Amino acid sequence: MAWTYLFFAGLFEVGWAIGLKYTEGFSRLMPTVFTALSMLVSVILLGLALKTLPVGTGYAVWTGIGTVGTALLGIWLLGEPATAARLGCIALIVCGIIGLKLAA
């Protein structure tokens, strides 16, 4: 169950990271509310996952999911560049997440 919590914590991290862009410096109410709620849910789920997972593994996987998801959505939603080097680095992060899962 801890890995499920961690996976969803990472998805909510993506939600708040992308949400920050849409708050326009916290000047827009609904994106700000969505972002704050996503932050709260993400941290709560991370805390639940860390009850049984090692903190280093859990935190690294959480930030990895957030990093990969945010980078991919930045490319897809925000028109950020999808260079070979950038996609290669994202793939390396995915390999690290998989490695941490297999090593846990």
TrEMBL record:
Membrane topology reported for the UniProt record: Multi-pass membrane protein
One Pfam match: Multi_Drug_Res
Coiled coil spans: none
Top-rank taxon, per record: Bacteria
InterPro entries, per the entry: EmrE-like (IPR037185), Small_drug/metabolite_transptr (IPR000390), Small_multidrug_res (IPR045324)
Keyword annotations of the record: Cell membrane, Membrane, Transmembrane, Transmembrane helix, Transport
Compartment(s) where it occurs, according to its Swiss-Prot or TrEMBL record: Cell membrane
Gene3D superfamilies named in the record: 1.10.3730.20
Transmembrane parts of this sequence: 33-50, 59-78, 84-103
Matches recorded under NCBIfam families: PRK11431.1
UniProt name for this protein: Guanidinium exporter
Gene name of this polypeptide: sugE
